Amino acid sequence: MQLEIGTSMVFTCAATGDPEPEISWLHNGEILTQSATIIFWGDTLKRLMIQNIKQSDSGTYTCVASNSVGQTFSRAARLQSDLPSTVRSRVTEAPVRNPAQPHSRRIFPPRQQRLPVRRFDSGSFQGELLDIMAKQGDNITLQCVENTDPSTRISWTKDNLPLSTPDHITLSTTGSLFIVNIQQNDQGLYRCTATSSSDTTTRELRITLQIPPAFFEPPRDQTVPEGSSATLRCRAQGNPVPIITWSKSGEALPNNGRFTITSNELRILQVNIDDRGLYICRAESTAGYREATAYLAVSPRTAPSLVHRQTDREVSLNSQVTLLCNAEGEPTPSYRWEKDSLPLQYDNRIRSEGNALTFQRVLFNDAGEYECIAENIEGIDRNSFRLSVVARRGVNIGHQLVASSTDEAINRINLAANVTYDHLFNRKKTYTINDLLSVVRYPSAEALELAKAEEIFEQTLDIIYEHVREGYKYNLEDHELSYRELLSPEHIQLIANLSGCFRRYPNIDCSDMCFHKKYRSFDGTCNNLLNPASGASNQAFRRLLPPRYENGFNTPVGWNPSKEYNGIPLPSPRLVSSVLIGSNHVTDDDLSTHMLMQWGQFVDHDMDLAPQSISNARFSDGRGCNETCTNDYPCFPIQVPLNDQRIRNRECLGFSRSSAICNSGGTSIFFNTLAPREQLNAITAFIDGSNVYGSTFEDASSLRDLTSSRGLLQVGASPDGKALLPFDNNGLLANVDCQLEATKRHLPCFLAGDHRANEQLALTAMHTLWLRQHNKIATELIQLNPHWDGTLLYHESRKIVGAMMQHITYEHWLPDILGPKGMKLLGKYKGYDPQIDPKISNEFSTAAFRVGHTLIQPIIYRLNEQFQPIRSGNLPLHKAFFSPYRVVEEGGIDPLLRGLFAVPAKKQMPEEMFNSELTEKLFVLANSLGQDLGSLNIQRGRDHGLPSYNEYRAFCGMNKATSFIDLRKEIPDANIRFHLENLYRHPDNIDLFVGGISETPKKNSKVGPTFMCIIVDQFRRLRDGDRFWYENPGVFTADQLTQLRQVSLARVICDNSDNINQVQKNVFQMVRNRTEYLPCEKIPKIDIKMWSDCCFDCQKSGEFQSITSFYSSRRSFHSYPEDRQLFTSSNLPRDSQFLSDQPVSPANTSYFYKSNQKSSHLDTRVEGMEKTIKNLDRMVRKLRKQVFGLQKQQSSLSTCVGSDGKRYSNSEEWKVNDCQVCKCKNGQVECEKEICPRATCSNPKTVPGICCPMC
């Protein structure tokens, strides 16, 4: 080939052989290496590109093919670079064979005087052709064959079409093709065919036109704040595709993580001042290069400075108000607002957008001290001011009643609450199941105060209404009564204040970010740092639709029995249950196990608990809710139909309403109206293991084993080897006898994170299983990280358990509940969103999630190792309630667990919604009458103000039914629709729970479309609104997350049952026969070593042992791994640095002595650590004298920090309150709390300085 200097050329070579030969190149007999102008590439066809040809590139080029069998060479091709810009391309394709090694390889060499030849006869052609790179304007000569016979006929094609010959293309008489001033449309595949009398030869060449780079998106100047990220985009086109490189100040930029270079952009992380300057984007190819520049300016970071400060304002009630707060700073400041030193709670009425706080309608309780806080990473600036709300003047007829009515309401509520408390927690009483159900659902101390405030508020309004309705001191002729007309907004505000609805909520302190960044609080606060109360315990349920109350405020539909809805009174829940829900026949589900039901109940008790009313007796006269059949707060009895087949001697079934909370965290008042009653969720909304650990700090502390620093939970008796739950000897159930059969001895209730753990045996077994799982993890962690203290071990174990529950619920359980369609609606996890509200919806808790009741079998199966009933037998469901003695005395938890994963769930069939154990025999041991779960669910939905089923059809995207035939798609069973029509008479009257369970479940799911919609909504918000969701980046490391994805409930059962050694991999799915059970060793388990804390003073780290392996009793004084400085043998700190950076406690001093005394043993047990041991010995000798001095000062160093934030010296005592005294003991806080006996009078008095109320 003859090429002009400065052009480019490509040689192509292909070879075959076994093994596959490798290709290399020789230039003038010397091995050719790759450089800036010499480039090798290709797979089957090996190519050599020479760019920017120089005189020194002239010479012969040879292709060499080598493999383990041998080596062979192609014939040489000669390149001459001193000729004008005409290229004669001649290469032959005839294979070169090595006769001695016929199977080694075949090579198609580049060679002078021959074009590529395609040979079809041998089948060895490798697709070889000659690639010619040309620049626009070049002149090229393509020679077909040498020394052509005059009789040889030459023809050319281009891109498989006959070649046309425009003016700049000439075909010579010898068959050569001359192209002058080559242009872009001359690119393509050229084929020459030479036909003679003896042979036909075809040769191919591809001409590619080089196009210099050109920018179609050059980089642009930009200014970014210091510490942020900058992205410069640069895109170019050309042929060949240009390569983009970046430089600054003449130096190429590294691709090192902070500078990230991709094909189209340069990204700079953590921009600093030194990064400012001119950046050059260079697009380069063999056709040339182009450069484009952009200037990056970096604005320095500055703390916020408020330039507009809000001053005190007085605004009118019910007006719209916007408060502004403008600040300058870099990065741009963000804004947050506080009211009365608490984070402001936002809703549809109060919104914060940018620097503006807008009240759509100002209320009285909006008055207060406000503070705007502008902040960025450099600092904060604050602006405080007062907002006053002025009401319109006017006289209202309710003025004289407010104070006296409030006092009367307070007395009523306190009296009823005290009577109920005494009844439920009387040590001498014999408990019924109804009593136990009330006990475990009784509000906690904090929830009790919240519920009292709302009840006092509502009772005050009710008392005023009663007085005025009776004409008490007022002339009401021709005057229609309503709360609005009786009371002014000022009076309603006063009632809210007197009732306690205006009480200041405890300040939620999220300042301890060392803890809150890593671990959940027990009560769920500080999960959402923008709204710390989101998802926390003792908050109102969320609503998907506005509530439906009979009076628009707080009375359930059906409160007035004669009130008609769509022309007819609502049917009794008992009538609906007996006609539509209950069934004596049960069909087994051949796909799902009974464990599907049990996990649903267990995880439900991790998400919601609506406490019962603070009293189970009427506020008006103290009569019990099971003694009267009239609707009178808080009693809402279920009416029994006259023709009921079972209940013949009672007119009603007792029922108490759920506790409520003052709306919106402050008051239940909007201007000129009343906010509707909202029920209270007493536990955290998140799937966080609160059923194992509790939802308050006090509950969590009572569950921990504080006798050692091992991070364990308390355990109880161990009759068969493994521990059971501890008995509740000091808590809520301390005085309760959980043994209801008169022939059995007294037995306390079990203690767990949720008081409902004793409700039924299978639930108790699940609680026992997860107690053991926590202790198993904590034990493994202390073996792995013996330097961790008990608190760290506890929180890490709790964090892992919560993640395991989340994974099992979403990856294994929910797919069987929701089916493929529901899981598709749920969608994949896309990350944490702080704007999502994770609170439990009232519709989910009170209706949709109770669909699990349709899965309950009428029998609790208890199976032995042969999967046969144990000697004590299976249990009818009504005998499994509140009977923990059966776990202790009748085989432990294994028979119950086998009865869950080896027995099918009940299948939901038309006319088989609930088994009769639930509708006719519920709690029959305690009451010969027996309760009805179907009736309870319906009545609870009305109590909570749930709108009708038809409203939720519309909410979920279905058409509202105008007749019962409109329900046929979702409720195809004609008999079910017939019963619904006879009972309700109008589609708008159907209760949500009844309509939801009447729907036919979607394919491979357990729920119909309405409940699927509500359940998907809840589980999506629980996942996406949880900062500690286990898949949220940063919650766990990538390695830890990989391990957590191995978790299964089957593995938990294998690890924590008494002696179960075979189980199916997915315990929610039935096996066809026992051969499908797997040995436990085949069930995947997590590798806890991924939680190894690899630090200087760890005694174990993964498989290797560190130098402190002897000191398992030692505990680090650091709370978290990142607080420990990581040392290695090569960078051990100097004496002075060690003493100043790391305080020495008594636990540390023992380490220095022991390491010197036992160093000889370390030599034999820790290989390869000699150098480190010598360094430690040297350090110990230097520190010995100082350690003695520090021991003498031990008492001064061993200080404690109390809950009030103050530091106390060793042995110092302080009083937390009148009932609690704490003492600092060797750096640990120990507190004693006085327990008050039950007061003997009805109104005990509190005396300052004395703990217990006095009569």
TrEMBL record:
CDD domains, alphabetized: peroxidasin_like (cd09826)
Main location: secreted
Cofactor: heme b
Positions of the VWFC domain: 1198-1255
Binding site for heme b: 853
Localization of this protein: Secreted
Xref: PROSITE patterns: IG_LIKE, PEROXIDASE_3, VWFC_1, VWFC_2
Keywords: Coiled coil, Disulfide bond, Glycoprotein, Heme, Immunoglobulin domain, Iron, Metal-binding, Oxidoreductase, Repeat, Secreted, Signal
Cellular component terms per the entry's GO annotation: extracellular space
GO biological process assignments: response to oxidative stress
Residue ranges of domain Ig-like in the record: 1-74, 110-208, 213-297, 304-388
GO molecular function: heme binding; metal ion binding; peroxidase activity
InterPro entries referenced in this protein's UniProt entry, alphabetically: Haem_peroxidase_animal, Haem_peroxidase_sf, Haem_peroxidase_sf_animal, Ig-like_dom, Ig-like_dom_sf, Ig-like_fold, Ig_I-set, Ig_sub
Domain of life: Eukaryota
Coiled coil: 1166-1193
Protein name according to UniProt: Peroxidase
Organism of derivation: Octopus bimaculoides
Lineage of the species this protein comes from: Eukaryota, Metazoa, Spiralia, Lophotrochozoa, Mollusca
